Amino acid sequence: MPGRFLPVRRLPTALVLGALAAALSAASSPAAETPAATVPVPPPLPPERPEAMKPPSAPEAIPPTPPARPAELTPPASKPKEPAETPVAEKPPETGKPELPSPPPTPPGRPPELSGEAALALKVAPPDDTACRTRLKRLGVAFEPLPAIAEGQCTAPLPLKVTQLADGITLPGGATLTCRTAEALARWVTEVQVEADRTLKHGLIGLELGGSYVCRGQNHDVDAKLSEHAFANAVDVMAFTFAGRASIPVKAMPEGSDEAQFLGSVRGKACTFFRTVLGPGTNAAHANHFHLDERERNAGHRLCE
User: Fold this and answer.
1) Among 46, 162, 168, 276, who pairs with 293 as Cys (CB 3.0-4.6 Å)?
2) Residue 121's pLDDT band (boundaries 50, 70, 90)?
């Protein structure tokens, strides 16, 4: 109701006095400062271990001494060698002239067996052609051995005279050949027989030869290198003879004819058995025959022209 006052509750005196004292104390104290950044401090070192608790130090290891060598294995002491005295060469007296170099040593003399007539008498053993002659007999080749040929540089240590090939193929006058060349001729002629029956329908009965062993240069040139004929290592075939028809000479034939086909075929087959095959078209010196030889070349090279 208007004009009425609420009653005021009185606080205890002790409580009021304590609040005042706290306010006065807060007013008199300085304002709190912001603490500065602190640096980390390392942890303190541990205290040193007492001497009584330290382990005793180990003594330094000393390598063991190897046992002494047995007396029976000890070599006797040898006296040191005294250096040999080097003789002092006497100095030649000075003459005022320059010293000339000493001449080279003289080579030893040639052994007596390699000098004079003894050297000329030396001979190289000829190759053994026993196996080759056995093959010739099996091929049906008729032959006989001849004495060794030695005409200056023209040589044939084991020549043969071949008179007939397999199946009665004749060689009028025979041929003087080495066994290897005779074998190549015999094997080639067996192929010629087959080609004659196939192309000409007539059997081969003989070969006409222009020569076998002849001591001469290549292409009959006296200044040229020796021909393989000079070693009984070549044969020249001039013509083929047949039963029941005319012989076929080795020369250029009309293209497309049976004769041209026959000659071309047997010429190609000869390259299988001989190392050198020359004929018409090679050069003028071989326009009328087949030259067949067994000349050895580097790496087994063959010449087929």
Assistant:
1) 276
2) low
For the record, the structure tokens of 210 come out as 């222009």
Mode of pairing for the β-strands spanning 154-156 and 142-145? unpaired
DSSP 62: -
Is residue 217 in a domain? yes
In a domain, 162, yes or no: yes
Give me 130's structure tokens. 């026993």
> pLDDT by residue (tens digit) across 249-280?
999 999 999 999 999 999 999 999 999 999 99
Task: Give the bridge partners for 207, in sequence order.
Answer: 240
- Where in the sequence is the domain holding 241, given as residue range(s)? 130-304
Residue by residue, DSSP assigns 196-260 as IIIIISS-EEEEEEEES----BGGG-TTSPBPGGGGT-EEEEEEEEESSS--EESS---TTSHHH
pTM of the full structure? 0.60
How many angstroms separate the Cα of 198 from the Cα of each of 66, 193, 201, 241? 99, 9, 6, 15
Radius of gyration for the alpha carbons in the chain, expressed in angstroms and rounded: 61
3-class SS of residue 171: strand
List of residues 6+ apart from 84 with CB closer than 8 A? none
